[in-house]
Amino acid sequence: MADNRYLGRVHSVRERFGDTLSAHTNELLALFSRFVKQGKGMLQPHQILAEYESVIPEADRQKLKDGVLEDVLKAAQEAIVVPPWVALAIRPRPGVWEYVRVNVSELAVEELSVPEYLQFKEELVDGRLVLKFHGSLSRSQSNFTLELDFEPFNASFPRPSLSKSIGNGVQFLNRHLSSKLFHDKESLYPLLNFLRHHHYNGMSMMLNDRIQSLSALQGALRKAEGHLLSIPQDTPYSEFNHRFQELGLEKGWGDTAERVHETIHLLLDLLEAPDPCTLENFLGRVPMMFNVVILSPHGYFAQANVLGYPDTGGQVIFSTNQLDVSAHPSMCFDLNEGFDVQVVYILDQVRALENEMLLRIKQQGLDITPRILIVTRLLPDAVGTTCGQHLEKVIGTEHTHILRVPFRTEKGIIRKWISRFEVWPYLETYADDVANELARELQATPDLIIGNYSDGNLVASLLAHKLGVTQCTIAHALEKTKYPNSDIYWKNFEDQYHFSCQFTADLIAMNHADFIITSTFQEIAGSKATVGQYESHTAFTLPGLYRVVHGIDVFDPKFNIVSPGADMSIYFSYAEENKRLTALHPEIEELIFSDVENSEHKCVLKDKNKPIIFSMARLDRVKNITGLVEFYGKNPRLKELANLVVVAGDHAKASKDLEEQEEMKKMYRLIEEYKLDGHIRWISAQMNRVRNGELYRFIADKKGVFVQPAFYEAFGLTVVESMTCGLPTFATVHGGPGEIIVHGVSGFHIDPYQGDKAAELLVNFFEKCKEDSGHWEKISNGAIKRIEEKYTWKLYSERLMTLSGVYGFWKYVSNLDRRETKRYLEMFYALKYRNLAQSVPLHSDEEVAANGTK
């Protein structure tokens, strides 16, 4: 299935690369011969550059420094070696890919299409390529392989072209579609129809049948505006409701004359001179969201007593010490981190979302009770949790519940926990059962369905497709990026992880979703040096199963960055003295400063008046707490200026995780090697979120700082927490914190691979604080301001509500529901995913119990 379409400017790269080959034949021959000499295999970016530096002398590298070769090698994400060929996957910028192949024997360069590159890559696994008469590689014509390609369905769909536009989908969509759909009077009729058909449970909203045309709408709005100007601004809607009905206007415009006037004025402006900003503001006021369903099927989802249970944090399934951290910084994080955080994320999310829904419904002048349902799996064998409870109210809410629906087969309900890697054969039946439960519980169709993680996103896709509902996808963590080469070598992982199902489910969900929320840009499209989680699904192959020629486009306007925040009831500024939990100070004092060593804290601080460098994280290689201890210990001046307090690990019990054991030993060794007793306090992991919030503020009282030294951090929740509390924060530049912090304004970026420079940055900060008493407050205030501007749950919920309304509107008035794509997905689901899911063994409760419940 040859494909003549190429990603990016491949032909141009081939030509320029060919010119370089002619100009620097000896250097290129030496380098690529080294690649070929190693035999068939794959080289990662760090290996490509290491070979380049090893083979090419420094003087020659200087000549090549500003040329095409070095640019190509630095942009190469992998090299596939099948002697005498070397193929390169080149990524000149986020979201743009190009492919070339070099024949080392003939010193010839050729461009490759995506299918050709993937076909060549498959040689690493099955070795069935044959040499055709003209010297190129091909696969036997009898070996037909399914190629998945969503690009033709999106060819005419608008999308930005600049990398900086990635993750700002709704802004781009509004600009483009506003100009396209509202270019003349007639094109405004979809907006009129949208408002006329707006209702909830049989109750008309916004407009009634008296309004049949745009001129009638404009006339009614002007009469309504005149009436509103004649009455006090605080007049309740109920007092002019009948007058509005006579004009053809129903409830939903606002709760007071002032609010109604503002909404009417927005619509009049929109009808006169459409623009994207006015459209978004108006849609944000239109009542559209009353029932929200949030899906997170796997694991133990509850509000208490689940820490340490499988798939809910605490059970490490894949140790990051199997990875070369320097080679795969974006892939280095505990596989269960996402699931512990996911539970906290959803519970914080629904509290903020309910508050925003209640506020908007009140401001719209409606008397409707919103409902939010978190749908998860019911576990009859709940082992000390509430996971066997069908309906559980979420603490801190009025109208939000956890709705639990069991997994079942023809033989009955599955009583015990099942690993998230083995849920696939249950999900189709589960989706049907959830649909029935939602109908009973809501007595209405949901207005928005939000999926979480791979299984939740697949169920959300099935439900949204069945019910015709707007769908939002939140991945949290895409497994494909966590396991290097888990696509090309998927068969090696299949018995344990069933990645063929999961990667297929992820492709279906991300292409079916109306919009996708991520916490950071890097989650979508990575950085200059690293590939994004979604971006890794652009093109890949599962040899023997199918090739993904075009899986997802990171430029798609469905992508939106909507960052979460910290729970403001727990994490707030140290300066808010009336809210401070001073009753906790004695135990925090004891935790940090007592002269006693016990199972909760090791080492004693000698000078208790020095400011504190504080860090709190899991004790594993990627979180790099030992790296912080090491660069602190190596810098005598830093030890003079500040104490170090770290919260990590558990002194009270022996860890079963080999990586944590090694990090624990390393901590003790570093403390001994750098004579840190007297300078460091090592505290066991603290699970009390309320006390942790006050702990951040206590450190701020001491004019301390927070350091997050991870090799890679997908988002950086502790960074947001510390900044919310006003604690100056130094955090890794690799991952989300690089976006959260504005260097030198709201905190500081550090590179964990350069600990000496990180230590000097801390030294400079503390010395400047000594010279300038206002410097600490300046950075502290900058941190709080940054959080208030971008990282709060209130902002998150406002944005989520607006996105839901905007995408729902555009689905109604345009082809944004992508019907063609969804028909393609139906076929892919029925003919491929379903068979894969059926190949995953069903477990009896006895087998599940033997394999690992707590």
TrEMBL record:
The lineage of its organism: Eukaryota, Viridiplantae, Streptophyta, Embryophyta, Tracheophyta. Signal peptide: none annotated. GO terms for molecular function: sucrose synthase activity. Residues 601-772 form the Glycosyl transferase family domain. It is an enzyme of class 2 (transferase). Sucrose-cleaving enzyme that provides UDP-glucose and fructose for various metabolic pathways. It catalyses: an NDP-alpha-D-glucose + D-fructose = a ribonucleoside 5'-diphosphate + sucrose + H(+). Keywords: Glycosyltransferase, Transferase. This is Sucrose synthase.
